[in-house]
Amino acid sequence: MLGMDRHRRRSILVIAIHVTSISAVMLLTASAARAQSQIDRARALVAAGKLADARAAAEKTLEQDPSSADAFHVLGLVAERENNLPKAFDAYQNAIRLRPAFAEAHDRLGYTLGRLGRTADALAAFERAASLAPDFFDAQYHLGATRWWTKDLDGALTALRAAVRLQPTHAEARYYLGLTLKQRGKIADAVVELREAVRANPQLAPARHQLGAALLEVGDPDGAVEQLKVAATLDPSSDVHNSLGLALMQQGSGDEAVATFRSIVAANPSNDTARLNLGTALLQRGSLDEAVAALKEALARRPDSAVARYNLGLALKQQDDFAAAESELRQASSLDATLPDAPYTLGVVLWQTGRADDAVRAFREAISRRADYADAHFMLGTILAQQGQIAEALKEFRTTIAQRPSSAEAHLSLGQLLSRTGERGEAAKALAEADRLNAIKANAQASTFAVGVGLEKLKASDVAGAIERFREAIRLAPDNPRAHLQLALALERLGKRGEAQAHFDEAKRLAPYLRRPNE
């Protein structure tokens, strides 16, 4: 009996301890829930800008639990918002000390370090955050942007692609990805990403600026001008207007380009880039006297500008002031030993003034600076042929054709020279190819003209007439993407959506950068 009593008392004691343990766990769980609720409330207060209340909530949590990494994280967020970066740094360090795998704290620590100018340490923090939480958008985005800043473009691409995968509509992540692709020379891919950045945030001026610049590189000056005009309304900086002016030049809108550069110079007379571009735009427009004056003014400010001297030499050449042109071109060539156009144009001046041997040396110098300079090879071949150096001339013409197979002039010169040497079969092939290429060139020019006429007919509401012109443009040059695009748009206006889509698809195949208006 006594043994039974002892056994019963022991069982009752075990049950009491078990009940007490359950109660303790329930109390701990309730306490943790209250602490988490308080932290969530503190973070919401930070997001709402109620920093004093957020700080109070975090400090209260620390009074109850001094080991709360979340509370230190909130204090870091508050300090960041208050621009107290040293305090934010300490808070994030404490959060990480208490929870070493706290990815969010590593990310914010990196952001704080970046603002403190400690870029290498910031990069290490972002890398740690991304390794702890590969699907954490902020870490991948900050890591990618920081790698871009440090010119680690390959590393930036990896992180930014991860960020875009996690948040496809994040405009800034798309922007940095597009910018990185553009700098890596992947212009077509950059156009895609920058379009998505603009779609996600139409007010993001840098994205429109870089999209315009990328479109200019892929040969779409109309699209570039469209984007850069919007960018200029969002960001009136001289950089955007300079890019707009360059796009207008490439588009052929010379008057508008000149006006754009004039406005930049008027607003900021010390903007040497705009002043140089103004001279170049005037030169392209054919306003030679004004171009010479603008370029001389640019050189008065920057005598060591090889590009300004080169452009001045071009303008003087067109004015038939060969002596002055030669002087400027020689100086440009000396100022920049990597500039191939200066010795090339100098060679043209020397040839035009009857100094063939000097011209040969100038063209060889141009080729030494750029081995694939087809124009220089062609001019060198032309002079060598005139001097009777047939073998050397044939070599230069063949090199020109290898570098630029579409050069009708090179095929013609090769054919004529081969005829002189009695190689009639090869000569006939070269001359036939010259005829074929000249026909293609003529058709391409006629196709471009037909598109222009079609656009004028559209302005006059003559849709049927426009369609006829666009069809003619395609007949002349089936690979003219703008003809297909404009025909598609015109057909769409008449409700012929099936045929329109076929031409939209063909335009996109020929020129992936093309889009419908406002697309």
Main sheet characteristics: none
The chain-level mean pLDDT equals: 91
Taking pLDDT < 50 over at least 5 consecutive residues as the criterion, the unreliable ranges are 12-17, 19-28
Which radius of gyration do the C-alpha atoms yield? 35 Å
Order of helices and strands: HHHHHHHHHHHHHHHHHHHHHHHHHHH
Query: CA-to-CA gap between the ends?
Result: 93 Å
* Helical stretch tally: 27
Helix content: over 70%
% residues in beta strands: under 5%
Shape, principal axes of CA atoms:
elongated
Quaternary? single chain
Structural class: mainly alpha
DSSP strand count: 0
Summarize the structure.
The protein has 519 residues and is mainly alpha-helical. The chain is 81% helix and 0% strand.
Structure description:
This protein is an all-alpha fold and about 525 residues long. Helix content is about 80%, strand content about 0%. The chain has 27 helices and no strands. The longest helix is centred in the N-terminal third of the chain and has 46 residues, at about 1-45. The protein is elongated, with a radius of gyration of 35 Å. The N and C termini lie far apart (about 95 Å). About 45% of the residues are buried. Mean pLDDT is about 90; it is low at about 10-15 and about 20-30.
